[in-house]
Structure formats: structure tokens, C-alpha cells
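Encode chain A's predicted structure.
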Amino acid sequence: GIDIHKRSWKIHCSTDLFSGKSFSMNPVPGELLKYVYKHFPNHEVSTSYEAGCCGYYAHRCFESFGWRSLVVNPADIHRKGKERFTKTDKIDAQLISRELKDGRLESIIVPDIKREELRSLFRRRNDLVKDFRRIKSYIKMQLLYFGIKEPEEFDNDHWSHKYRNWLDDMIFKHPTAKATLESRMRFFRFVDQDLRDVSTQLRRYCKAHYKKDYMLLRSIPGIGGIVACGILSELGDLRRFNSVKHLAGYVGLAPGVHQSGNNYKTLGITPRAHRLIRSYFVEASWQAIRTDPVMQTYYRKHTGKNVKSIIIKVARKLLSRTLAVIKTEVPYTIGVVQ
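Encoded structure for chain A:
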């Protein structure tokens, strides 16, 4: 069991005969290989560590050594009552080792390097979206702070070229406030252009390397180029999911349930989710009900309920449709129930 950090690894070794010992070492897979060869020659080796910021480099190294390697979700590592209130690197390594030895751990799906690097570009785009929203808020905040009223034609979320020119031509009483606005506008234009460039690169790459699945996904109302890229990069090949229930549980569009005796209640959508992709499916659902009569009918059938609850139902239906299109490899046709 390994508790991985940037500067050091905490290792706990155990075998079928003894519980083993814990020690620290440099974060270098080759050093662990030397240690195992020295102290555990001719042993069948299994390693496990928690998924996190250190990625899958160590996992790939361990597999190249001929070892069995698991990368696990931290939430899947069982902790007994008192273990929930004591946390150290040593204890974490011992818990991972114990669960691995008892056969209770299941590895997450580790993407290949090609898809992992595509995922990095998709997540970079989401970082830029956050920066874009943030700098727009800062500019709006400055106008509000100095009591500057926007013309009625510009009082919306669309930043047209006329609105940007109006900001550029703005005059303040002193040059310092003007310098502040100019600095923010330079950053705004940089992020705006970078966001466009990264989005173009993302769509172009997916269309070139995953054209078949990309075009199948684009045939579904509500799923545009960026959402399709997100599905391909974050979820990988959807054919690995056995059912809609399996996929919905992974994305987080499955209900939480609490049942005890005759008491039964739903707890809303589960907190365990791929939050980024779940949010993309929810946003795509709003577009789907505008463009697809079948989705629109399904949405209206639940009229009167909480709007947020209805759109989650639509998102689940859109997720089901996505899996069906990929597995059957038949493009979706608007108006046809699938």
C-alpha cells in the first residue's frame, strides 16, 4: 500500500504471512523496485495507491515491472469507526495495504496516454472558462464601484464589439482607474482569444482522432462540439459501460436512496459523481428540450414539479440516449423515440 505525495512516498509492505512494516522513501518507482528485489525476491507483487494529483505515472511504472497495480478511489477505502478520526500518511498506507491484501479494492479505469493528454486540454479549456467569467465580473465590478451606468443596449451578458469599444473609450477623472480598466481589458482579450483557440484545437483533434464517435455524439440534440469532446476525453469509450445504470452511477445522475424497514425515501442525486461531466449533461439538457420534440414532450409531462428535478430527469434520458447511440453506432434522428 502506497500513500503518494510529491516529495515522498509512505510505503506499507505486507505478505500473506505477516502484516509487514511501514517506511518512507523518495518518490521514485525505481527505488521501490530495488527494495522489493532485495527484501521480497521471487514474490508476486501487487501495489495500490489513491488516485490524485500525481496521476498515473507510478501505476504505469509498476505495471512495466510486471507487478499488478491498482489506482483506487479514496472513497472506496474502508475505514472502521475510530479510523475515521485518525489520519496520517502511515495509517493511510496501512489501510490501503490491508484492503489490498483482503481483496476488497477495485481499480478505477486508467485511461491510455493519448486520452489522458486529450483530457488535459479539455480541462485547460474549463480553466479558461472560469478565468473568462472572472475577468468579466471584475470589469463589471469596476463600473459598479465607480457608479458608471451601462447603456441599456449593453446591459446583457453578450459582450459585443461595440460594448468592448465603449469600454475602451471610457474616460475617468484620473489616469489610475483608466490604467486598471485597460489592464483588465488586455487580460479579457487574451483569455477570450486563448479560449477560442483551445476550443478549436479540441474540436479539431477529436474530429481527426475520434471521428466516428464524435459525429455520433454530435447527432444528438443538445450535444454540441465541446460537450462531445468532454464525453470522449472524460468518459472515454462508452462501450465499456454495461448498462445505463452503470453509466449513470459513474456520471452521478443516479438517485440516492435510504430504506429502513417500511421507511423508504429518495435523497436526490448522489453526491458521488463526475461533477464536470454531470454539469455538462445538465446544460446540454436545456438545449435538448428546445430542439428535440421528444425531449420537449418528456419535459412537459412533468410540468408542475420542481424545475431542477425535471431537468435532472431529462439529463438522465439524454445520458441513456448517448449510450444507445454509441453502442448501436446509429446516428440519432430527431423525433424518433430511442
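The chain has twelve helices and seven strands.
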